[in-house]
Amino acid sequence: MNRMRKVLIADDEVKVGQLVKRLIQWDRLGLTCIGLVTDGQTAYEKILSESPDIVITDIRMPVLTGLEMIQKASEQGVKCHFIVVSGYKYFDYAQKALKYGVEDYLLKPIDEDELNRQLQKIVAEEEQREDKQQQVDQIEKKLEDSKYLRHKEFLRQILSQKQENIDAANTEFGLQLENKCFRGLTFKLDRDIDVAENTQQMQFVLRKIMQKAEDAFSACTIDLIAAVQSNHSVQVLLNYFQTEQENIDNRITDFFNELSDYLENFQHYRITVGVSSEVESFEQISTAIEMSKEAAASRLFKGNGRRIEYCQEPHTLFSPKDFQNEYEEFAKAVETMQPDACQYQIHKCFRLASDKALFASEFYAMGLWLLRSTYDILEIADTFDVDVQQEVLENLSTVADLRDYVIRQVQQLIKESRSERENRERKPVLEAIAYMKEHFTEKITLEDVAATIGFNTNYFSELFKKETGENFSNYLLGIRMEKAKQMLRDTKIPVYEIGESVGYKDAKYFSQQFMKVVGVKPAEYRKLYY
């Protein structure tokens, strides 16, 4: 059973209405009662407000008769099933009601089996209808999804210069393009950066933008291509006759305003539309799309939430060689793991990018380059996901947000790498200490322990002192003396035997070493506890 269906009962005789309610096998049929009313007007109002699936009504009722109520509901386009309850006397009225879509009429006194059979028939018909509608919806969705996938692939091929023939494109992608006017639009959806992304909601909104674009422009275009892109944008290509130029321009503005109003229904979103110049041939489509993308990207400078026309002001492309000096200082700061120095150099790179008047999209390219370089320098390049990082960067809508994101990421990578390096360096020292604590009664040397854990003696000596603050000999001495102190406190074993048990065969030498570390001789230390 697909869902619980709502039933409204209308009869001016309360007892008859209650009887009908008692006779219905609600649970078995998957039905629920939404009310029992005693006049046709109230029934009509409840039908409009609560949309019941089934209405069981008497013919004779005050204010509106059952027949008048059914007629009014039918004229309003209400889609529900009516079952008329009538006495023999009003059979003719029931017959007239059939033309308004009444399923059947039941004669009083009501037969329980007949009532439930009729209800079961309606439920079965509704379930069958809903199943068919679901199948139709699925087929339509598959067709729609197929169309948008074809549109997306067409745009990808255009941008990669793999599609240069309009007739071939029309055949391959089921389009109807003509060599007339073209204009590219990029709708970039931004969310507040301090709000966690709701991926499902974002995809829903992007798809709505795409569908609304079709509705907005289909009447004035020859053909329209629209596709959701991975960087939270929708690309639209308009193909139209020259006579529609002014209409297209006005519709872009009207549609942008419509989208802005639509997004008021959601929190934390802003829409920017990048608009290309008009081009007049199929071969220039890729240029139009790139212009619209660059216009949308220029919200970095102009702010988001607006219509931005592509501007042909002189701009330059990003080239790492133009940032060579800044990169060398940046690389040195990353390699030596100095977060503050990295921040300073990133600021310098962004200032230089502004001085060189990079395209807005090239600011994103520079940010990606700085991140990739950090991964390379820290020798973690295999963990760098270029697609993910590019998507994140392109969803930042101001230069300051972009710069600060790069700074945060670089500093976080340095912090993680430093922690990992410290753990790598600490691990052999911890292994060495564990070995020393297990074998301190034996004659062990720095060379022995370094060889045991597989390190060069000199390097291990430096590493050990860096981690513990003491050289190897003093640390081993400390382990031995701590054990000796414990035995002196807790046992009555002779001092010379304690010396032997912590690695000293010569009792006099043991006493000297104990005095050096603790400040008193072993025997005097024992007297403090006995």
UniProtKB/TrEMBL annotation:
<dbReference type="Pfam" id="PF00072">
    <property type="entry name" value="Response_reg"/>
</dbReference>
<dbReference type="InterPro" id="IPR020449">
    <property type="entry name" value="Tscrpt_reg_AraC-type_HTH"/>
</dbReference>
<protein>
    <recommendedName>
        <fullName>Stage 0 sporulation protein A homolog</fullName>
    </recommendedName>
</protein>
<dbReference type="InterPro" id="IPR018060">
    <property type="entry name" value="HTH_AraC"/>
</dbReference>
<dbReference type="InterPro" id="IPR009057">
    <property type="entry name" value="Homeodomain-like_sf"/>
</dbReference>
<keyword id="KW-0804">Transcription</keyword>
<keyword id="KW-0597">Phosphoprotein</keyword>
<keyword id="KW-0238">DNA-binding</keyword>
<keyword id="KW-0175">Coiled coil</keyword>
<keyword id="KW-0902">Two-component regulatory system</keyword>
<dbReference type="InterPro" id="IPR011006">
    <property type="entry name" value="CheY-like_superfamily"/>
</dbReference>
<dbReference type="Pfam" id="PF12833">
    <property type="entry name" value="HTH_18"/>
</dbReference>
<feature type="domain" description="Response regulatory">
    <location>
        <begin position="6"/>
        <end position="123"/>
    </location>
</feature>
<feature type="coiled-coil region">
    <location>
        <begin position="112"/>
        <end position="172"/>
    </location>
</feature>
<comment type="function">
    <text>May play the central regulatory role in sporulation. It may be an element of the effector pathway responsible for the activation of sporulation genes in response to nutritional stress. Spo0A may act in concert with spo0H (a sigma factor) to control the expression of some genes that are critical to the sporulation process.</text>
</comment>
<feature type="domain" description="HTH araC/xylS-type">
    <location>
        <begin position="430"/>
        <end position="528"/>
    </location>
</feature>
<dbReference type="InterPro" id="IPR051552">
    <property type="entry name" value="HptR"/>
</dbReference>
<feature type="modified residue" description="4-aspartylphosphate">
    <location>
        <position position="58"/>
    </location>
</feature>
<keyword id="KW-0963">Cytoplasm</keyword>
<dbReference type="InterPro" id="IPR001789">
    <property type="entry name" value="Sig_transdc_resp-reg_receiver"/>
</dbReference>
<keyword id="KW-0805">Transcription regulation</keyword>
